[in-house]
Structure formats: C-alpha cells, structure tokens
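Slide 14.
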Amino acid sequence: MEYNVKTEGEFKYIEAGEGKTLIVLHGLMGTLDDFGGLVKYFSKKGYRVLVPELPIYTLPIIKTNVKSLAKFVKKFMEYKSVPQATLIGNSLGGHVCLYITKNFPELVYSLVLTGSSGLYEKAMGDTYPKRGDYEYIKAKAEAVFYDPKTASKKMVDDLFEIVNDRNCAIRILALAKSAIRHNMAKDLPNMDLPTCLIWGKQDDVTPPDVAEEFNQLMPNSELFWVDKCGHAPMMEHPDLFNEIVESWFENNPVQ
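Slide 15: predicted structure.
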C-alpha cells in the first residue's frame, strides 16, 4: 500500500483523494491492504476514499459483534465529518455496511457489496482456529481464493500469528457467531438504496446462490459476476473490480 496509514485516537485508517466519499470496510481477517487497488484507482478519480481498520481484535469480548463494529464506523464517520457516504464492504465488512444501513440509514447513500456475509457464510468449522498448525492455516487462507497463489506468504504468516494469539482467536469466533445471529434476510427488502453486488463465481465462503438471494431480496440491486474468482474479487481481479464499480457509479452517481 503506497498510502500512509494514519493513527488518530482510537482510529487507524487510510485516507486518499478528494471529492465524494467512499467508506471501505475489510472482512473478518482482512487488512487495510485488501482494497489497495480500489484506493489507488478511485482516489485519482475525484473520490475521497477512507478505509478504517475495524477493531476486531481490540473490542471488549462482550462487545465483539456486528453491532459494535457498525457503531464504530458511525463514530468514525462523525470524526471525519462525513454526513453520508457510499459504503463498500467485503465479507464481514459488507455485513457491517448492511447493519449500518438498517440502523443508521441517513449515513448511507449507496452500497457496494462483495462476498458479503449477512445471509449465509460457510463457517471455518469446529476445528478452527487450529493453533500451531501452519499448513492448516495456509490451506484455509488459500481456500478463500480461486487462485491459491493470491494468499501470499505474508498473508499466511500474519494469519498464523493472529490465530495463535488466544485473545484474537476468541474474537474471531465471537464475530463469526455474531454474523450468524445477525441474519439480514428480513431487513434486505426494506433497503431500497442503490446497491452493487460483485461476486466471484467460485466463491466458496459465500457461494453464488447467496449473491442471487441478495439480489432477489434487495429491491434496487444489480449483480455482477467475476469468473475464476473466489471470496475477494477486489484482490484477485482488482482492475475488473474497479471497472465494474466505476461503470456502476456512472448510472448511480455518488452524492
């Protein structure tokens, strides 16, 4: 990532560009780097791109849930004086976008969701996280992508370190359970804001039928497929991902 990461009080984030605001949210075991291609591209296209690091590993365990993450993003938007934005989220980040839309609709102009949880996501399994087993963690990381090489050694090393920290592992499981509890199926038909759904055809975490269900339930959504792609299109096919988003913005301009 070529942009400086800012740390101000409780917030650690990337800010790049000027113009209409995009708030970008990473997934459960994601990082600020996950949307690097999007930050680089749209910050040069008249957008202010903000990528806050979600406090996944620092919340009190009793508050390690989707609701608390949504409140954190709301507080971040207030801190950065953002009255309304387009929210972009992957996996758990997409789920947080949806929760914000449900509870603080005045903050959200439109949505871009990719591999979002909120309806169904394949659990990591009862054996996860398997502490101390590097090859197991490596296999789990690679399974997120269509091309296993997308899971770099640094990515696997970082993930291995996280799951071997007991406090982090507990919070990962707490958030995974929270995501299941906070099913959004009954809420989606009430979300009539413009929504762009971008899904990998080979997503094994939130499979293609999940994307189809999102598209059926949300009254103002459009679904775009990315072939030879797993759970993180913005990482496996960043150029195509940006092309889809930019084209969609042409028909649904960010305010």
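Speaker note: Residues 5-251 form a domain with the Rossmann fold fold (CATH 3.40.50.1820).
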